[in-house]
Amino acid sequence: MPGTSPSTRPHSAAPVRTDSSTAAVGTGVAVVLGAVVPLLVLGHTPDPGAADTLWRWAFAFAVVVGARLGWLVVAGPRRLFEVVFWIFVYVFLALAPLVQLRSGQHPGTTPRPHVELHGTALLAVVAGTAAVAVGVAVGRRRRAPAVLGDVPPRRAALLAVAALLLFGYYTWKTGLPAMFAARDARSAAALQAWPDPAVNAVVRSLATFPLVVAFVALVRVPARRGLLLLVAVAVVVSMNPISSPRYVAGTAALSVAVALGAMATTARARAFGLGFVAALLLLYPVADAARRVVAEVDTRGGLPPALDAMTSGDFDAFEQITNAVWYVQDLGSTGGRQLLGTVLFWVPRALWPGKPTDTGILLADAREYRFDNLSAPLWAELLVNGGFLLLVAGMLVLGYVIARVDAGADLGFRSGRRPVLAVILPFYFVILLRGSLLQAMAGLVVLLACGLFVERPCRAGSPGRHLR
Predict the structure, then answer these.
(1) For the chain, which has fewer Cβ within 10 Å, the N-terminal or C-terminal residue?
(2) Ranges of Polar residues compositional bias (predicted)?
(3) Which helix (H) or strand (E) holds 456?
């Protein structure tokens, strides 16, 4: 078949052998992320004194997470889901809270913080993260899945044509100028065409994410280069960083980069992981400039720019977990009602008037905030739905799933077959971790459906056959 991949035998996804040079580099990066960076934060933020020592625990957490992330990026196999998880924790739940607790400055989008609950919130962060680590350890004891993915050219072409038609319909309804307007303007045009939020989310996802799946699939089909070029142009238009949310544009850009070989070698994989960390720390906070018609509320100032950014609304994750702790303590958990709304995301509100809102909005309304476009990290989602018990249980399951998915994906990468969903979903995983889950579900379901359609499972070691 064209582009036949080398066969592989089923084997466990044990970590790759670590030689002395890898160990040295891994140790060096672990020291930089786990010691140098947290110490730089301490050196450039004011010491709150003996009256508030919670930052010491946040510092210890940042050291552990940074060391784990540094070693994993350098010395581990291509465990992309696990790497992305630790990157998210390091940036949003370790460094950002450390800056906020040290400086006493908190995101202006979450005013009147319950500082007395910060300790409980930090405990929730640590407990959830530790539960994921345990789940990963358990999951990695199992043998790697022996199933690889084969992309039939006909399916890839059908998906590409369908994705282009859906994108064309969306552009026709919103108008082509809206695709390059500010994010607020594009959202307003889409809401005018599809006023129901559930319908709007599904249509928007259908007009964007199938294009990314089609691109990644077509990269593995050499005979369809003309169609690949058309899809690439549509991806740039539909998911450009001007009118698209940063997480969506980032998912598209990173998926394309990996599909084109950004992680094809060990050296590239290391550089890619470290670049991802740097991008979230340095580029993400400024990537929203001049993209909105109305600026978000914020009250930053007094710190070096890189640290000052970590007190902005982009880094509200810790305060939203704090709000989730307050919500459960004062109002009780929702008993899974928020998760039910997530599962039934596709039901229009016209048919379900009492359908739950995003958990970020739920917390904002409960705190009587004027601004409600807030995150709801997975830690907060699980707390609101079932308290600490559901948090720990849910994170254990998540860790196990991460290990199993990474094991199968790593087998595919090492065999030369880049699994379609394994190229895209790790970056969409950031959206799921940040929350709210309800607003992320439409995109996730569309990605899964398209990936399962375009990629046919075949046993490792068996010759893949393309449908003609």
Answers:
(1) C
(2) 1-10
(3) strand 456-459
* Pick from 258, 250, 272: nearest CA to 419: 258
User: Which are the contacts of 295, defined by CB distance < 8 A and separation ≥ 6?
Assistant: none
Burial class (CB in 10 A: 0-12, 13-18, 19+), 467: exposed
Q: How far is CA 222 from CA 157, 230, 254, 288, 298, in A?
A: 12, 14, 21, 36, 49
d(CA 298, CA 290): 15
Does residue 457 sit in helix, strand or coil? strand
> Rounded to the nearest 5°, which phi and psi values hold at 200?
-60, -45
Count of alpha carbons within 13 angstroms of residue 13, beta-carbon side: 30
Output the CA angle 128-133-136, nearest 5 degrees.
125
Q: Is residue 335 helix, strand or coil?
A: coil
Cα four-point dihedral sign 169, 175, 178, 180: positive
The SS3 of residue 147 is strand
Cβ atoms 460, 7 nearer than 8 A:
yes
331-to-108, 323, 338, 380 alpha-carbon distances in Å: 24, 11, 14, 14
Residue found by looking up tokens 């994921």 in the block: 132
Query: What is the chain's pLDDT, residue by residue, as a tens digit (468 residues)?
Result: 334 443 333 333 334 444 566 667 667 778 888 888 889 888 888 887 766 788 899 999 999 999 898 888 876 656 888 988 999 999 999 999 999 898 888 888 888 888 899 999 999 999 999 999 999 999 888 766 655 567 778 888 898 999 999 988 888 888 888 777 777 777 788 888 778 777 777 888 888 889 989 998 888 877 677 788 888 888 888 887 777 777 788 888 888 888 887 777 777 777 887 887 777 777 766 655 444 444 444 444 567 777 788 888 888 899 999 999 999 999 988 888 888 888 888 777 778 888 888 888 899 888 888 888 888 899 999 999 999 999 999 999 999 999 888 887 777 676 666 788 888 888 889 889 987 888 888 888 889 999 888 887 655 544 444 333
Rounded to an integer, what is the distance from CA 241 to the centroid of its chain? 16
What the block records as the tokens of 199 is 């319908």
Q: Can you read off the two tokens belonging to residue 201? A: 């989310």
Q: Is 27 exposed, middle or buried (0-12, 13-18, 19+ CB in 10 A)?
A: middle
E strands present in 266-312: none
Q: Which of 80, 134, 11, 147 is nearest to 400 (CA)?
A: 134
Tokens standing for residue 451: 């990936």
Could you give the CA distance from residue 337 to residue 327 in angstroms, rounded to a whole number?
14
